């Protein structure tokens, strides 16, 4: 008879070591884990090297891709936590309904006639919620709050009258091909803020670029020329806002200035010539800027491929 297979299952910082016969089914493994963690099989999600993407409960451990000594991370909420999530979702739905009813009762807002304080209340993220069943929800909430409070983001939201009901996150294992999603033209924006292995968070600047992309979907659903123009404008306005706060674009200088000027042309907008920096030959300035433009265009194309938002808004 073959020796047992040893598995090391990590769940929320606790390591569970199991030894099972090689002909054990995947369902039997899930049953053992339910006894240890109280997470039912229907809620269990697994991350591990070599595991099949689709595993049947009747598959043996070997057929599922499990090897002796393998380390697997398990994710998933308990029934009690699911109840809490359901209650939170019901409360959020109640708040959203109240906000919609209030918006319907208010007169249509006209630019530059209301107070800045009322604009701040309307054009913002009205709720923030990390996914409670993923690791470190407090850190995820802090990152989402940082995005919501980002002065440059708040600036473009008020300038373009963007309002978002909920800012939340996408789970990498549930949406492996997506970086962002805008639901119903601003009802929710979901961002991929975590690394694939759940051992940290993606770079803030990269997440914020995805956020600008998804905010553009408040107006345009498809990635057409109108979308590209507005997306380019939002990125340009973020850069200009931060440059002004830093003391003015004329004092930036160096490669940072080249990057900022290049961003004004890329991201789907109209293109034009780029003026070389001082003490820089025109050919060198054009080559560096062209390289930056090409790189940023490729990044924006990747964002479009990783965006789950389609259709007219």
TrEMBL record:
Record InterPro entries: Ubiquitin-like_dom, Ubiquitin-like_domsf, WLM_dom
Region annotation (Disordered) ranges: 269-313
Bias (Polar residues) ranges: 272-282
Chain ranges of the WLM domain: 116-291
Pfam family, one: ubiquitin
Domain Ubiquitin-like: 3-75
Top-rank lineage group of the source organism: Eukaryota
Recorded GO MF terms: proteasome binding
SUPFAM superfamilies, per database record: Ubiquitin-like
The protein's name in its UniProt record: WLM domain-containing protein
Natural source organism: Schizophyllum amplum
